[in-house]
Amino acid sequence: MGTKLKDLMNNPKEVFYKGHFACAGCGSALALRHAIGAIADKVILVVPASCTSVYQGSGKGVSFNVPTINTAFASSDSVASGIKAAMEIKGKDVHVVVWAGDGGTADIGIATLIGACDREEDILHIMYSNNVYSNTGGQRSGDTPIGARTSTTPDGNTTARKMVPFIMMADNAKYVATASVAHLTDLVDKVKKAVSLKGFKFIQIDATCPVAWKVDFSNSIEVARLAVQTGIWPLFEWERDTGKVIISRPSQKYLDKENRKPIKEWTEIQGRFRGVTEKQLKALDADTDRQWNFIKKFL
Ligand SMILES: Cc1ncc(C[n+]2csc(CCOP(=O)(O)OP(=O)(O)O)c2C)c(N)n1
Predict the structure, then answer these.
(1) 3 within domain boundaries
(2) Residue 2 included in any domain
(3) Fewer CB atoms inside 10 Å of the end CB: C or N, the chain?
(4) Is residue 110 in contact with ligand 1, taking CB distance under 6 Å?
(5) pLDDT tens across 126-138, in order?
């Protein structure tokens, strides 16, 4: 849809009042500001337990300038379905958007996520993935990359990423996309596209957590950019109506593995990969290939 950088400063409404509690360099807060900011005049936000439910503040200190409901960890898509139904009865045209972490989406929330998709609820689920349960101390989630040290995988995570976008494609969502905090205009385009479609939509954002990833907050965007350039995080869209994947512009070059930067450029600026073994790096590389091979089937 061609969002330009300058458009990012012209949202209908600023999502944050001054004084939220997100850490410096928080990818979730940055992504929320722009993704939700772009549709802020018509949005109702549903947030399960996560960093987002903490950094919005509480009481008189609430920093969110959009209607927001906080839900139990596992139930966000059910709550969003109910809100959408109520708004329809009232004749109100609003975008009901779930804003959930990877724990709240890939793990405990997956049953209600899939239930809402099965029912073809007209909602958008945005999963911001910082690859761990950040708010409770950085435990491994289903979206933790292989080799990453977390508080529950001190020798490095051993299992492949769950790749929720692929699950949502298989479950026949209306629209599925991946995005990155390093490519905000692409993210905003995808959010706008998603809310223009009726049905269940899903977007996963690679959202840096400087604390859990052990990167300097000034490198928050750089590390996300490297995830795209190394092929670790492919940006794409898939639509049910065409059944086709479109590789997003920032990732097009990396369809060809030859063009990708070495994965080590991504791991080496993150303390969470300190001590990663060659065997783990190989497994991480193989898991990256697995993702690209899956996507290529739909080109
Ligand atoms: C049933 C239940 N179990 C555990 C918790 C504690 N809890 C709150 S937030 C959270 C982690 C959330 O992780 P994620 O969804 O990845 O979001 P992030 O904190 O990374 O933003 C946990 C375990 C809870 N609130 N409810």
Answers:
(1) no
(2) no
(3) C
(4) no
(5) 999 999 999 999 9
Residue 205 tokens, joined? 């954002």
Out of 51, 110, 113, 211, mutate this one to test ligand 1's pocket (max ligand atoms within 8 Å of CB): namely: 51
Cα–Cα distance for residue pair 183/237, rounded to 1 Å: 14
Residue 267 has pLDDT above 90, yes or no: yes
Among 220, 250, 213, 218, which residue's Cα sits nearest to residue 235?
250
What's the total number of domains in the chain? Answer: 1
CATH number of the domain that residue 286 is part of? 3.40.50.970
pLDDT-based confidence at 252, cuts 50/70/90?
very high
User: What's the pTM value of the predicted model, to 2 decimals?
Assistant: 0.98
Distance CA 293, CA 147 (A): 21
In short, whether 56's Cβ falls inside 6 Å of ligand 1 is no
pLDDT tens across 68-92, in order?
Answer: 999 999 999 999 999 999 999 999 9
Whether the CB of 104 sits within 6 Å of ligand 1: yes
Packing angle between helix 184-196 and helix 27-35, nearest 10 degrees? 50
Domain extent at residue 250: 8-296
Q: Which atom of ligand 1 is nearest to the CA of 108?
A: 1
Ligand 1 near 49 CB (within 6 A): yes
The response to whether residue 101 sits with its C-beta less than 6 Å from ligand 1 reads yes
Ligand 1: does its nearest atom lie under 6 Å from the Cβ of 136? Answer: yes
- Say which residue the tokens 């051993």 belong to: 158
> Which has the minimum average pLDDT: 14-18, 187-191, 262-266?
14-18
How far apart are the CA of 47 and the centre of ligand 1, in A? Answer: 11
* 1 domain residue, yes or no: no
CA distance 117 to 123: 9
Answer yes or no: is 50 within a domain.
yes
